[in-house]
């Protein structure tokens, strides 16, 4: 955990002041914070189980042996990979009840120290032009997340293409928690760049900031990315990292789980209302890392 702590320490000074910044005028929209009903929250439960199952070591049949595996019994595996150390575990398959291909990528946990070191690499860089041809040069992302994405990008892309062909669909649900949420947000840009027909639904849990304003704007505006939701639990500090003063921004689509357990949808990017994460968790001292793994409507992110 030492690397996580040093990462948190490195960003503290910035974070304490960043919450005081007003949102850029271009992102002020007339919209209100709305309650997410229990039945709406329940629609995310299969996704939470996928994100959670990504922590488990996949075996050759993808029959994972863990508490949150097997919770989507109709899932049809296509491929899996990663080693849980240098390369986050990932799996790709098809969910007939969601009528979508599913991609889930593993996040960070205390036993995966090297991925945490990856998280510490907070420079903003341009995305690799071989993986992301044609992206505007203003678009930048966290170097550590971009590197982590690149290690399995080709394998995941091939599995998604295979699944699209096999199941005659172009819908793909991308999900993950923590580092896995960051990697799958990059896949939400990468997959449609490589497969222009792809229609992406993204659901991230405890998502840190992945890129700069131009990156967030691209995610929000791109037609192939049909839906973006990032769900933050209570006082989890990870979503306020890296800080906005370092040049990082979230796309729109936050759902913030209140301390009461109520789910609220927060409009816009980095909404500073006290009901949303940026306004509620103003700095690391306001945060509680024990909230990072959930529960998200009853699902805890672990194998
Ligand atoms: C945050 O939410 C409020 C509603 O409470 C809304 O008026 C405001 O425009 C939102 N901020 C952003 C940046 O979208
Ligand atoms: C953080 O969460 C833990 C576990 O739920 C709790 O014991 C602790 O009091 C919380 N800390 C703060 C500062 O709220
Ligand atoms: C989340 O943090 C709150 C403090 O904000 C604490 O009371 C609660 O127990 C934590 N929940 C979990 C599951 O750790």
TrEMBL record:
<feature type="signal peptide">
    <location>
        <begin position="1"/>
        <end position="22"/>
    </location>
</feature>
<feature type="domain" description="Fungal lipase-type">
    <location>
        <begin position="102"/>
        <end position="244"/>
    </location>
</feature>
<keyword id="KW-0732">Signal</keyword>
<dbReference type="InterPro" id="IPR002921">
    <property type="entry name" value="Fungal_lipase-type"/>
</dbReference>
<comment type="similarity">
    <text>Belongs to the AB hydrolase superfamily. Lipase family. Class 3 subfamily.</text>
</comment>
<dbReference type="InterPro" id="IPR029058">
    <property type="entry name" value="AB_hydrolase_fold"/>
</dbReference>
<dbReference type="GO" id="GO:0006629">
    <property type="term" value="P:lipid metabolic process"/>
</dbReference>
<keyword id="KW-1015">Disulfide bond</keyword>
<protein>
    <recommendedName>
        <fullName>Fungal lipase-type domain-containing protein</fullName>
    </recommendedName>
</protein>
<dbReference type="Pfam" id="PF01764">
    <property type="entry name" value="Lipase_3"/>
</dbReference>
<dbReference type="InterPro" id="IPR051218">
    <property type="entry name" value="Sec_MonoDiacylglyc_Lipase"/>
</dbReference>
